[in-house]
Amino acid sequence: MKFNHLHWLAGTALSAMAIASPAFAQEGNARVAEATSPDTRPDEDIVVTGSRIQRSGFDAPTPTTVLDEKALSIGDRPGIAQALNDAPQFRPSLTPETTVANTNAAATAADLRGLNPVRTLTLLNGHRFSGSNDLNSVPQNAVKRVDVVTGGASAAWGSGAVAGVVNIVLDDDLTGLKMGVDSGISSRGDGGRYGADLAWGSKFAGGRGHILIATEYQKSDGALDRASRPNMNGGMFQRADGQLVLARDVNFTIANNGGAIVNPFTGAPYNLVFNRDGSIGPLTLGSETAGQLTIGGNGQNLTQYLNVSTPYERINLLARASYDVTDSLKVWADFSFNQMTASFGFFPDTALAVIMPDNAFLTPTARQQLAAAGVSGPFILGRLLDDVGPTHLLNYAYNRRNLEGAVGFEGSFGSGWKYQGYYDHGELRNRQSLDNQRIPANFNRALDSVLVNGKAVCRVNADANPANDDPACVPLNLFGNGNISDAARAYSFAKGSGISTNKLDAAGVSLSGQPFSTWAGPVDLAAGSDFRWEKFVTNYTDPLSQAMALAPLNFAPTNGGFSVKEFFGELNAPLLNQPGAIRLEINGAARYSDYSTSGDIWSWKFGGTARLFNDLLLRGVYSRDIRSPSITEYFLGRSTNLGAVLDPYKNNKLVQSVYNYSSGNPDLKPEVSHTLTVGGSYSPHGIPGLRVSVDYYRIKIDGVIVTLQPQDALNLCVAQFPGDNLCGGLIERGSDGEIKSLMRKMINLAKYQTNGLDIEASYRRQLGSGTLSARILATHVFQLLIDDGVKTTDRAGIIGSETSFSTPKWRGTGSISYDDRSFGTDLRLRYVDGGLYSNQVGPNGKLSLNNDVASRLYVDLGLRFRTGPFTLYGNVNNLFDRQPPLSYYSSPNYDVIGRYFSAGVKLRF
Question: pTM of the full predicted structure?
Answer without folding.
Answer: 0.87
